[in-house]
Amino acid sequence: MSNQAVRGQIWHKGEPVDGFELEKVSDCIDDPDRLVWADLINPTHDTMTRLAEELSLNKWAVEDALAASERVKATAYAKHTFVTVYAVAFDAPTATTGDEAVDAAAARIRFERISLFIVHNALITVRLTEGGGDRGDSEYSDVFDMDEVLRRWDEIGGQDYGVGALLHGLLDVVVDGHFDTVQQLDDAIEDLEELLFDEKVASRALQRRTYSLRKNLVALRRVVLPMREVVSLIQRKRHELGHGDTLEPEFTDLYDHVLRVTEWTESLRDMVTTVFETNLSLQDARLNTVMKQLTAWAAIIAVPTAITGFYGQNVPFPGFEHTGGFITSVSLLVVSMTVLYLLFKRRDWL
User: Fold this and answer.
1) Beta-carbon neighbour count of residue 173 at 10 Å?
2) Torsion of CA 66, 70, 75, 79, to 10 degrees
3) Average pLDDT, stretch 189-194?
4) Are residues 133 and 63 in the same domain?
5) Which of 18, 35, 70, 149 has the least C-beta neighbours within 10 A?
6) Quick one: pLDDT band at residue 102, thresholds 50, 70, 90?
7) Using CA atoms in the order 333, 334, 336, 338, what is the torsion angle rounded to 10 degrees?
């Protein structure tokens, strides 16, 4: 069942035009005084086919926009530019101490794929959200705020810069979402580092949580790293996209943010690997301590066993069948065990 929704706006000389119909987009894309934005949420294949015919969109780009999965990319076609990016949000663990707390809430990254068709003075966004469109799965969830894009577009005076400013606002919101997710992952890894030396937390629970964070980082890395090529292509085509050199500082700053997110993600992957290896090392250290303790106690117990075994032979010994002999043997046991205990304790074996 489809959850299709269509919204949008047309501006004429910087002023919004009342009413929006998707069928009117093709009538406005050749008018330099107009700016068009259309947002399609979970569109059906028929809707995208009609739109592709009206705007002469590449059929492979349309298929990519509706595909079950697609990588982050930017492709320049003859009559338009096609971009695919992912908005992300992170559900962080809700607790940080105790064995049950480690497993209380599994960390999970949620994705929303956004496909962009940039046609002259029009920006067409196609978003796939949870359970929508023809796909019917739940891989994606609604984590992207398009209203925030419009707000930032207004802040920089987007009416004066055209579709380039609108595109910048969208990518800026996406990259900020990447930043927030990386920050939360960083905090989650720091919490995990503190749990490493908590004796109350089971190592198996730590391993599960470490694996979950590492899995999320791998998923985030797949959508963050290609963003460099996306922003680079848009910068190279800035004149064709209508913003020329006017928005160059904004796109340069955006590219810098993308690089910072990429580097941060790589460093976090190294950190979570270090946490995993440290946990294994601590397990080995704890096992060695247990083995030393068991060995020490076995040595202590071996002394009375040897003495009683010797006295248990059918050989008369001094004090045999007398109270003095019993006291002597018991004293020998206690003194030997005490000496061994103090010796092992001094060497930190117990």
Assistant:
1) 21
2) 0
3) 78
4) yes
5) 18
6) very low
7) 160
Handedness of CA 74, 75, 76, 77 (dihedral sign): negative
In this structure, the answer to whether residues 30 and 108 fall within a common structural domain is yes
The pTM score is: 0.73
- β-strands 73-76, 81-91 pairing: antiparallel
Q: Are 117 and 57 in contact (CB under 8 A)?
A: yes
CA distances from 173 to 21, 50, 177 (A): 26, 29, 6
Specify the number of domains making up the chain.
2
Q: What is the per-residue pLDDT across 319-344, written as a single tens digit (0 to 9) for each?
A: 666 777 777 777 887 888 888 788 77
How would residue 94 be classed by pLDDT, with cut points 50, 70 and 90? low
**Torsion of Cα atoms, 259 then 265 then 267 then 272, to 10°:** 180
* 34 DSSP 8-state letter: E
CA distance 281 to 279: 5
Q: Where are the beta strands (DSSP E) in the chain?
A: 5-12, 15-17, 34-41, 73-76, 81-91, 108-119, 122-128
